[in-house]
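I hope you will forgive my troubling you with a question about protein structure. I set the record out below, with my sincere thanks for your time.
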Amino acid sequence: MELFVYIFAALFSVLNPLGAIPIYVGLTEHDSKAERFRTSLWTAINVFIILIISFFVGEYVINFFGISIDALRIAGGLVIASSGFALLSGQFSKKRGVNKKVTTDAQTRNDIALTPLAMPILAGPGAISLLIAFYQDYPELSDKTIICLSILAVAMAIFIILRSGHYLSRLLGASGIVAISRIIGFFVIAIGVQYISNAVVNIFKGI
């Protein structure tokens, strides 16, 4: 249970689905309830698939390119920490890596669940690098099973949050969502710093 909660909290903080609410609301404001339900469901499914693939295949990708796990931890930690700083300072891009062309294209087509919602808004490089590191840190099959369950729980939380996105947007307002995002940003920074420090310690031990 301790591992499950740790992985869930880390992934939830890095993905920050609450921060995606304004984008989701903007892209689905003219959709029917059925269409919003479908978008929320498929966004969660796509995020789950992306994270599971990253968890199991990511190690072989970094080995192919000759990248060490400690180098990945440092790079991932920098990405995660920079996202956390941006959340904490309130300077996080509202588009979260989505340029104007992608936004315009998303507003003119029906299927936005994969792009831009699932990727890159939710399942970005920070979450992917985090999962690759988890694969190395927890080699036991039982641990990997728990991590998969944590990923599933995060996907379910994303579905619930997006499904309630329009209601939460009205309830919390822009200032409420920003306040929550800043609190999450603090924990995201801590996760990034922890991964960088672990990698640096491992590198010095190997010297």
Q: What stands out?
A: The chain has a mean pLDDT of 83. DSSP finds nine helices and no strands in the chain. The chain has one domain: 32-206. The first helix runs from residue 2 to 15.
